[in-house]
């Protein structure tokens, strides 16, 4: 089970629950995985709804890595994400928000 106070979000992939978290290392991987722009621009894209499926996948992958997942990015291409693409986008947005929230101000 994910702990929102620790910046964690849960996502069920191929029937298995996974805890996602943007650790400092995961944030560095996320920055490296962005084809253009900065983390601030990524946040802005999610705030305005102008994010891409690449943004969602890159965030999910970084969060999985931060949560301890050791799989390969290629595995996510054919993975069944519970709730579909819309749910994955919501989880990615929540993950990003929780990474930058001030303690005591965790969103639900």
In short:
By secondary structure, this protein is mostly helical.
Indicate the radius of gyration in whole angstroms: 13 Å
Overall shape: globular
- Helix and strand content put the structural class at mainly alpha
How many DSSP H or I helices?
Answer: 5
Strand order of the largest sheet: 1-2
Number of extended strands: 2
> How much strand?
5-15%
Which stretches of 5+ consecutive residues score pLDDT under 50? none
Tell me the series of helices and strands, N- to C-terminal. EEHHHHH
Give the rounded overall mean pLDDT: 88
CA-CA gap between termini: 14 Å
Textual characterization of the structure:
By secondary structure, this protein is mostly helical. Helices cover 51% and strands 9% of the residues. Strand 1 and strand 2 form a beta hairpin. Helix 1 runs antiparallel to helix 3 and helix 3 packs across helix 5. The protein is globular.
